[in-house]
TrEMBL record:
The name this protein goes by in its record: Histidine--tRNA ligase
Chief location: cytoplasm
Domain of life the protein comes from: Bacteria
GO biological process: histidyl-tRNA aminoacylation
Domain Aminoacyl-transfer RNA synthetases class-II family profile: 1-393
EC class: ligase
Residues engaged in binding L-histidine: D100, L101, T102, R130, Q144, D148, R285, Y289, Y290
CDD domains reported in the protein's UniProt record: HisRS-like_core, HisRS_anticodon
Length: 446
RNA sequence: GUGGUUGUAGCUCAGUUGGUUAGAGCGCUGGAUUGUGAUUCCAGAGGUCGCCGGUUCGAACCCGGUCUUCCACCCCA
């Protein structure tokens, strides 16, 4: 049988894992610096926790876990015979893999609300699963790195999370554009256009502006049943790039004015940043639990031309997520880094630091059995002294062992033969330069 | 979920209208070199042509199904 792994999943080689860990470590470091605390939740949740939280599309993309035991025997035989998947599903599956880290977090907050101090700031770096059709930069299993705060509606957190996004990408050496918008501005836009109830349709359409252009958005709006007068109103917003210019257009909408006010306060608080931070009225973001400010981060193509990648981080404020789980209605705001896409971008731009790929310092090669026994002693002494060291486990031909050292990317090789055992002076070869010198144990450790 | 696309050696790929024994480069193994890798030279190993079925005297090649890859939708990190 030929081994394989499920569609949309991947194995990782050691150097790939190291580079992924480099990204996780940078993100985690900044999460800690900003006072976010680590929590963990199961990879499986009850399906009832997950369904209905991500919209119709999200439900379709949930991975369901089959019940154990005689799950078909317990299902309704008529519905089974009728092949009615929707009706049979809840009878044969009660659990599913998490789709993101935010909804499980909301569930967690409600379950542990008496043990948490609010505002509660937490982070999680963990895999999530989506049964999407895979493409490049789009997998069925991928990691999210989330920081969220619940229990406060202070706009200081919007500003803080923007800073956090900026710090992480600055630290990674990646120039990005952080785009901000507010769902209330989008609600105001829909209201002004006379389609208060069609906000989702309108935002989905204008979100595509940079992809399909103004004519494409107009067509999309028509197809979604928005009338010509409303389209004219909406078009006024499309070219607008500053808050000051969009404000007059939303004069007559209370919620719109509120959104403008919130975003203005956030911009006033952020302060100096490395990244470009811009208002973008066409930014929508899919997850429909967002209610206030929304974020999206993309690679700055002015600084890094030729990079084609969707958003590499995103987030937003949600006013009423915990309410669904019957808890106190706690407001929250959070961001999420897309580690896989960041990896692909750093790889393409060769922005990984050199030391993110190898951590072995010494590799010991022994020429005969007596030397091998000595080598085992020596490698132990090096390890106890805190050096990363490894030993080739047999006395083989030196050429063969040198080749292994090359493949292991060992920076230094220690060669041990009868001479070295006798004198305690070892031959140390620096692989990059080919230079060779003799050193005693104290020299190796020092 | 819809439409398309891809699959040949470990990797990247050739392979003529269907015709004998399916090739190359890189990598791998051994040797030139029994104490020196990444360079050079020589030799060698390695393939149920994704899988299942069909058409045919004969299939890597044609047809159907299936899995996988990538792309456009949908949606999204």
């Amino acid at each position: 049988m030929k081994p394989s792994i499920p569609k949309g999943t991947r194995d990782f080689l050691p150097h790939e894992v190291r580079r992924r860990n480099y990204i996780f470590d940078v993100i985690r470091k900044h999460f800690h610096r900003y006072g976010y605390q680590p929590i963990e939740t199961p990879v499986m949740e009850n399906l009832s926790t997950l369904t209905g939280k991500y919209g119709e599309e999200g439900d379709r993309l949930l991975f369901k876990v089959l019940n154990n035991g005689d799950f078909l025997g317990k299902a309704d035989s008529q519905q089974l015979a009728a092949q009615d998947s929707d009706a049979v599903l809840p009878q044969i599956s009660k659990r599913g893999l998490r789709y993101d880290l935010t909804v499980p977090f909301a569930r967690y907050v409600v379950m542990h609300q008496n043990d948490l101090a609010f505002p509660f700031k937490r982070y999680a770096i963990a895999p999530v699963w989506r049964a999407d059709r895979p493409q490049k930069g789009r997998y069925n299993e991928f990691y999210q790195c989330d920081a969220d705060v619940v229990g406060s509606d202070s706009l200081l957190y919007e500003a803080e999370l923007t800073q956090l996004l900026d710090w992480v990408f600055a630290d990674l050496g990646l120039r990005v554009v952080i785009r901000l918008n507010n769902r209330k501005i989008l609600a105001g836009l829909a209201e002004i256009a006379g389609h208060q109830d069609r906000m989702m349709d309108i935002t989905i359409a204008i979100d595509k502006l940079d992809k399909i252009g103004e004519a494409g958005v107009e067509k999309e709006l028509r197809e979604r049943g928005v009338d010509a007068a409303a389209i004219d109103t909406i078009k006024q917003f499309l070219g607008v790039t500053s808050l000051g210019k969009v404000a007059p257009l939303l004069e007559k909408s209370a919620i719109g004015r509120e959104g403008i006010g919130e975003l203005q306060a956030v911009f006033d608080t952020i302060g100096a940043t490395t990244s470009r931070v811009e208002f973008d009225v066409t930014l929508a973001r899919g997850l429909n639990y967002y209610t206030g400010c929304i974020y999206e981060v993309a690679v700055d193509t002015d600084s890094h031309p030729g990079i084609q990648m969707g958003s590499i981080a995103g987030g937003g404020r949600y006013a009423d997520l915990t309410g669904i789980f019957g808890g106190r209605d706690l407001p929250g705001v959070g961001i999420s880094f897309g580690a896989e896409r960041i990896y692909d971008v750093l790889e393409e731009l060769q922005l990984f630091p050199a030391d993110a790929s190898e951590d072995l310092e010494y590799l010991l090669l022994c020429l005969d059995e007596a030397s091998l026994a000595h080598g085992f002693e020596l490698v132990g002494q090096l390890r106890r002294a805190g050096r990363n060291a490894d030993l080739y486990p047999a006395a083989a031909k030196l050429g063969k062992m040198m080749k292994y050292a090359d493949q292991r990317n060992a920076p230094k090789v220690i060669i041990i033969g009868s001479e070295e055992v006798k004198s305690g002076k070892y031959s140390v070869k620096t692989m990059a330069t080919g230079e060779q010198a003799t050193q005693s144990l104290s020299g190796l450790i020092g």
